[in-house]
Amino acid sequence: MTIFVNIFSTNMKYDVIVIGGGASGLMAAYSAAATARSKAMDIRVCVLEKMPRPGRKIMITGKGRCNFTNLKEWGDFSQHIRSGAQFVRAAWRGLTPQNVIDFFEGSGLPTVVERGDRAFPQSHRASDIVDALVRECQGAGVIIQTEAEVVSLNAGGDQFEVRLADGGTHKCSRLIIATGGLSYPGTGSTGDGLHWAADLGHKVTQTFPSLTALVPEGYKTAAPDSSRHIPRETPLSEFGQKLCGVSLKNINATLLVQGSVAGEEFGDIDFTDGGIEGPVGFQLSRKAVKAMINGSRASLLLDLKPGVSLTELTARIKEMWDEIGRDPRSARMREKERCRVLLGKLMPWDLISGFSAAHPEIITLERRGRADTKVWINLVSIAKALKEWRFELNGYVGWERAVVTAGGVSIDEIVPKTMESRLVPGLYFCGEAMDIDADTGGYNLQLAFCTGALAGRSAASFSPAE
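and the corresponding structure tokens:
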């Protein structure tokens, strides 16, 4: 579907201007216009989006499938919010995950709920989510101005002045900053809103990448910079190449910071061209990245067999080794070949090369003479390595591929029941520009939608500009 977007470059006056045409911005604009219409108010709402099309970051969400919310009840949902859980409670209750599903269903977009209470468009096309948002905005009378890069804004009296890169100047009575954070700058999220908020007197808490790849020592060919950032395009080392592409399911991962446990997760991980990712890697990345940025030592311990104790696993491995020794097919095999057969029974075949490279201690060579070398397979070492595979973390992939931004405009300076600034009347915030973030699984988009909806409703509750 081709989206028609209204483009204006002349100086205009609106009642509500939303800077940023992402998830929170489009929902804020729709909510403002729909709220005004329900009250028989005639107001003008405009979205300023600097990219050629709105919703660019939505398009890449969930690998293009767009997991747009999560149907967990608040008690469970809130456990997945890493910053600002109590702050967003009112917004969440004002637009629950079921309300979000109803919104898209009502716009003509069928949805499905999959494992983990994750909601997707039935088509599994993120573009359908963007189309629905734009369609609803335009149906409510919202003006969407693309390629409208805001370069500065000023607050004075009872109005805001927004200056554009093309020389145009727009004015409004209410302004909503929905510019997102710093993650995926190619989609337009370059932190502009954070700078404007600071210029208007707001505190901006430390920002850092979250839901991003963690890079183990020896995984890449280049060292990190001073902040421990390692660009994703940095080539993989030989060790990294052995692991890249491997996925592990139902493992336990423990994050250690300065040797102390800082987090623990159960689930799946992926070794990618970036580093350690997947649901478990992402969940632990927030604390890991923050620790590394602050100069602390971080490491991951992987337990590939969390269902059994070390004693039980060791006994089982010894039994398996004896079975392999009695198998006629193993009679002509060397010890290293038998070891590979054993490892194949304990892990995915594509993991064996990387696992063996990381744990050379599982094979010992004993020289008995110039021409006599005995190979020993250390079964206890294999069991220990499976229960506690340690990765010292060298760095992390930065904004270029981080899913969300941790940190942002301080929520202490925003009214949770309206999303309005406590410092600047008529100024509202929503979405990732604020110091709120959550786990992967539809949680962050839900926060974007519900805070956007609340900001829009609040901004519309005023007398129209003359």
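(Above: one complete record from the training split.) The radius of gyration is 26 Å.
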